[in-house]
């Protein structure tokens, strides 16, 4: 099994430019994964809303709810 430490040790053996490329690739992949997660949650919420299992809230209700998290 690959550990974070062993992966980092392997990466640190690469030259500076290669490490920069890895950093850039990882950032872009993380952004894409985040977008996919947001889209999945949005689709689920829309499905619940259209089926009547999720009610619309006012801005004040939403802000109050967010402040309790």
Topology pattern, helix = H, strand = E: HHH
| Unreliable stretches | none
- Number-wise, the strands total 0
User: Which geometry do the CA atoms define?
Assistant: elongated
| Mean pLDDT over the full residue set | 95
Please report the distance between the alpha carbons of the first and last residues. 36 Å
Structurally, the number of domains stands at 1
- Relative helix content: over 70%
Estimated radius of gyration: 20 Å
SS field, number of helical segments: 3
Q: In this structure, how is the largest beta sheet organized?
A: none
Determine the strand fraction and express it as a percent band: under 5%
What structural class do you assign from the helix and strand content? mainly alpha
Polypeptide structure, described:
By secondary structure, the protein is an all-alpha fold. It has one domain. It contains three helices and no strands. It has helices at 4-12, 16-50, 59-68. The mean pLDDT is 95.
């Amino acid at each position: 099994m690959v550990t974070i430490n062993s992966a980092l040790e392997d990466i640190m053996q690469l030259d500076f430019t290669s490490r920069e490329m890895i950093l850039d690739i990882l950032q872009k992949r993380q952004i894409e994964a985040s977008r996919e997660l947001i889209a999945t949650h949005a689709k689920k919420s829309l499905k619940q809303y259209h089926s009547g299992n999720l009610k619309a809230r006012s801005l004040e209700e939403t802000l109050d709810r967010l402040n309790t998290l």
